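explain this:

___
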Amino acid sequence: MNGLYALKPWYADRLSGVRATLVRREVSPDALTAAGVASAAGAAAALAWLPTGLAALSVAVLLAARLAFANLDGALARETGRTTRRGAVLNELGDRAADLLVLAGFLALAPLWLVAAAGLAATLPSWVSLAGAAAGAPRLNGGPVGKTERCLLVVVAAASGWVVPVLALIAVGSLLTAAVRLVRLWRELA
């Protein structure tokens, strides 16, 4: 059950020309991580400040950029031989910050408790994957509501105004994703 994560190889292939340009220009993978966080912050601002419907295009474009940067930073580091442990930590922190920043855009639109619940739940799948990797298991990705699905749900909220149902779905779906990954991890480590 990989959800939209199954499209990652196809998406990475679509970004190969961009990646080649970044390699030629010697762009830092860390700069791409920062650009992903900035894109997430921009999406949050558009979600919070633009009217429903009008926000959808801006949020969609900025979240597509956020996902592209998340794909490109590690790929660029591997392709140029610039993988470092510090870069791996920055990548993970950047991804978690971007996840939380996007959901912070809902603070102007929904009750704090619901935004906080969705934010905490959205980080759980990654924490399960990171704990598994720390224990020597392969890094687990995908699931019913992973990063890509959360981005899509935020676009749905921006287009429709269905803020509370989308946040509830992000929270419950993220918990389910964490549980699915934990079961896979438990089997892997047995």
